[in-house]
């Protein structure tokens, strides 16, 4: 008699709020992201300097939740979903809830990509997908154990999804995707003919415990 047990799970959270309110929020966010990109001269200069194929506010703006009420509305939605994810992960947060630490706009032009990276110093990271035209890349995750596998042989081409070294998730516009910040991920080159628009963010433990 034999059995298999899956241990040390890597969990990815997905949600796609539906309804008129959610659809209106997504449309308003698309307009807001394009307006932010157009008006952010420092961000455009940062992108040119770093050869970023498109636009990101990552290197220029750190106050988008306060700058734009539409993004503030998104932050309220994100708080709810991050709390659900934290519960699914069995985090023992005590009096220090997870709070939004940073948020930035990403607009990838056709052919644009984002190399593999992690988000050090954060607990939960995620992306809200504003616009994903046909052919736009999703998000590709790397098995966090990969560096420790050393002599492990390659996996079959048609291996089970949970056995793969890399898994790409292709969400639809309006989707919230969450993962633990240690998980390495990348955006493969976009094959779309229109921009891929998203908002990425990090959550961290609140600095001061809630005394109420």
Topology:
Layout (H helix, E strand, L loop, with lengths): L12 E3 L4 H20 L1 H9 L4 E3 L7 H4 L1 H20 L9 E11 L5 E4 L6 E8 L7 E4 L23 E4 L6 E5 L4 E3 L8 E10 L7
Antiparallel strand pairs: 1-8, 2-3, 3-10, 4-9, 5-8, 5-10, 6-7, 6-9
Structural features:
alpha+beta; Jelly Rolls; six-stranded antiparallel beta sheet; 4 helices
Q: Structural class, judged by helices and strands?
A: alpha+beta
**Largest sheet, strands/sense/barrel:** 6 strands, antiparallel
CATH topology: Jelly Rolls
Number of domains: 1
Describe what is shown at a glance.
The chain is an alpha+beta fold and 212 residues long.
Please give a structural write-up.
The chain is α+β, with helices and mostly antiparallel strands. The protein has a single domain, classed as Jelly Rolls. Helices cover 25% and strands 26% of the residues. It has 4 helices and 10 strands, in the order E-H-H-E-H-H-E-E-E-E-E-E-E-E. The strands form 2 sheets. A 6-stranded antiparallel beta sheet has the order 1-8-5-10-3-2. Strands 4-9-6-7 form a 4-stranded antiparallel beta sheet, with no helix packed on it. Helix 1 (20-39) crosses helix 4 (69-88).
